[in-house]
Amino acid sequence: MKQTLVSTAMIAIASLGFAQSKFAQLGQDLPTPNVYRTASGAPGHEYYQQKADYVIDVRLDDEKQRIDGKENITYTNNSPDALSYLWIQLDQNMRAKDSDSKKTSQMDITEGSNFGEIKRLHNDFDGGFKLMKVTDVDGKDLPYTVVKTMMRVDMPEPLKSGDSYSLKIEYWYNINDRMQIGGRSGFEYFEDEDNYLYTIAQFFPRMCVYNEVEGWQNKQFLGRGEFTLPFGDYTVNITVPDDHVVGSTGTLQNAQEILTPTQLERLDEARTSKKPVMIVSPKEAQKNEKGKPKGEKTWTYYAENVRDFAFASSRKFIWDAMGVDIEGKNILCMSYYPKEGNPLWEQYSTEVVAHTIRTYSKFTIPYQYPVAISVHTDRIGMEYPMICFNGGRPEADRTYSERTKYGMIGVIIHEVGHNFFPMIINSDERQWTWMDEGLNTFTQYLTEMEWDPDYPSRRGNPAKIVDYMKGDPAKISPIMTNSESIWQFGNNAYGKPATALNILRETILGRELFDFAFKTYAERWAYKHPTPADFFRTMEDASGVDLDWFWRGWFFTTDPVDISIDEVTQYRIDTKDPDKELAFDRAQEEAEPEFLGDIRNHETITSPVIKEKSELQDFYNKWDRYEATSYDRKQYQRYLEGLTDEEKEILGYDWKYYQMKFSNQGGLPMPIILEFVFEDGSKERHYIPAEIWKMDQEQVSKVFYSKKELKEVILDPNLQTADIDRSDNYWPNRTPMSRFELYKYGGRNGDRGERKNPMQKAKE
Ligand SMILES: [Zn+2]
Q: Which residues contact 579 (CB under 8 A, 6 or more apart)?
């Protein structure tokens, strides 16, 4: 019943000993199309998805750093199947003392071990959900079984197709110190002022996804493979100390009660403002963070058709906002950050949120949620519907490195971008990291380029993936690998798919076809649950181009791209004209280098026998093999008479023919992109589609012709293919120039001295 997409199918074939064509159709490697998912990659006519609606009361205890919650889940069974039990995710249990994530986490003690590693090893944090009650709406206990990070609730009677069922869960858990033991949510503690900044997520038991692809998604949460969640509507009442500011998924329902008239006015002004407006200014926030709460306040948020819910809360928050228009809808872009984030956050965060929403809306579907929020807390990047938590912190002296600046802008684009993948285009993160991270990193790259074409993007440019693609084939895995089993997570699930899609866009399909197909995928699967096959099929279906070889090479194998120019041979047509051709032969011979022994013999043997005895010479001692005879000329005339006019014309061509041989040393078939540089300085481009490798996947040859003399051939001159070895991309060979450094003391680190960022250096 599980997906057969993993490359085990291919490994099996390889081990049987026959090589599969790199151009074989994906066929059996993809699930069989059905009434739920069509062969064209669109939702089928019987496509369905489950719905989970939540009403949650949650209280944040700022004294004990703990969450107390009560939830009411209403689950609607839109599947054709009756369900005798429901599976619910208890992701906090990943932090429980006896969790499998702890038991299966690995560590190596090395000479370079650090405090963090040892702290995490000794960590005895009492995490995990403490379940108080699981009942029906009338308060009657429901039988349930906790299986690590999941819980099965048995239905009093099977939940029939089309029916809904409501249940209640009461629980609490301790919030983790994110800076000490990590986590996608938790708190950051500011010791000098005794304040906390909470970013809270996975804070309530959440329904698993049930569908025709996986049945119940029951892959346990081990900490890496993220989440698989159904859509639903949420009402969440968040009770916090009354001096806290809360940022959250959804729209604030009781703003009149919670916010001051001034704040409400500022929010109103922000909607149409061209730049961010302070709702809570830095000055006000600094005053707040010195105060003490007098009681509690409950912020009520409502969110429609979202797959999850998260919030942030602190008395430290500065809060700014700016409206952006997306196809007639005013979206409020907002940021919440402590003063420690400035000056970066007040200058960039909300502007970046707005830019991200605009750019992604152009490439995918228009953003329709009412808000988009970026929250700052140190060293993190994590996404939820409408809200995300991002790092990027300047130094205490308010300077920052270039890396911090672009890292901060990049992480905001990335995490806000996750609103589209996977929050709206709701793929199964637990199974496939690349479907959200890869597609999102690709769109992030496009968004960074529109922010600034010189943006130092980490991922997307083919040259940046080369080192990874060169990696040990025993260690790296295909993109089509389950989330928990990926080596080099960032390169595999973010970098490589983003690069592959960029190559597909720039080099294989072209921007117009690609953009249409990519948008079609987003439109088809917005607010639905796509699988890898739905993506592969839609991209082909909408572009009209068979891309099976591309998916196979880039997504199902670890082959790198390494095409080599093996040989360039120049030809012209033999005219058969003896005067011309014999002169050519003579020139050829004269151009040959002479053997040293022959040179010496001519110098030292001054009286050879044939010179001493001239009677020993005959015809051949005087014959010039390169001189045409009248016999040769007559033969030539006779040859010409036997030719048709057209043949004579071809014989007269003065084209130069260049035969080139290429080999595919990496294994991944790709187009052969060539630049010819001629003796006269002119250049010519040739693009040979990847299908040239369709018969022989190791070596191919191709003939080009020109009137001009070829001086140089460059393979992939604009770095489009991520070719891992460029030394064989030139004819004739090029010798690269490199350099080496000399150190006075102990190598690079010993010589470096005090480290300052360029802003600090500029101040001196
Ligand atoms: Zn991500």
A: 628, 633
Residues 729, 723: Cα–Cα separation, whole Å: 9
Q: From the CA of 741, how far away is ligand 1's center (Å)? A: 38
pLDDT of 12 reads 41
Q: From the CA of 521, how far away is ligand 1's center (Å)?
A: 19
- Looking at residue 55, the DSSP 8-state letter turns out to be E
What distance in angstroms lies between residue 493's CA and the mean position of ligand 1's atoms? 9
Residues (pLDDT < 50) of the chain are: 1-17
Going from the Cα of 383 to the center of ligand 1, the distance in angstroms, rounded, reads 7
Q: How many whole angstroms from its chain centre is CA 374?
A: 21
State the distance from the centre of ligand 1 to the C-alpha of 471, rounded, in angstroms: 23
Over residues 100-156, the pLDDT tens digits come to: 888 888 888 888 888 878 877 887 899 999 999 999 999 999 999 999 999 999 999
Q: What stretches of 212-328 adopt beta strand conformation (E)?
A: 215-216, 232-241, 245-248, 251-252, 277-280, 296-306, 311-314, 318-326
For residue 56, CA distances in Å to 86, 94, 270 come to: 19, 22, 29
Angle separating helix axes 511-525 and 344-363, nearest 10 degrees: 90
- What does the block give as tokens for 201? 């997520």
How confident is the model at residue 753, as a pLDDT? 59
- Return the CA Rg of the chain: 35
For residue 618 the two structure tokens come to 């005959």
Distance CA 746, CA 751 (A): 7
Instruction: Tell me if residue 347 falls in helix, strand or coil.
Output: helix
Which helix (H) or strand (E) segment holds residue 590: the answer is helix 578-591
The phi, psi pair for 24, rounded to 5°, reads -65, 145
Q: What pLDDT, on the 0 to 100 scale, is given for residue 16?
A: 45
Helical axes 548-555 vs 532-543, angle rounded to 10°: 140
Dist. CA 250 → ligand 1 center (Å): 21
Residue spans of beta strands (DSSP E) within 160-260: 164-174, 186-190, 195-200, 206-207, 210-211, 215-216, 232-241, 245-248, 251-252
Distance of CA 705 to the CA centre of its chain: 40
pLDDT digits (tens, 9 = 90+) for 601-640: 999 999 999 999 999 999 999 999 999 999 999 999 999 9
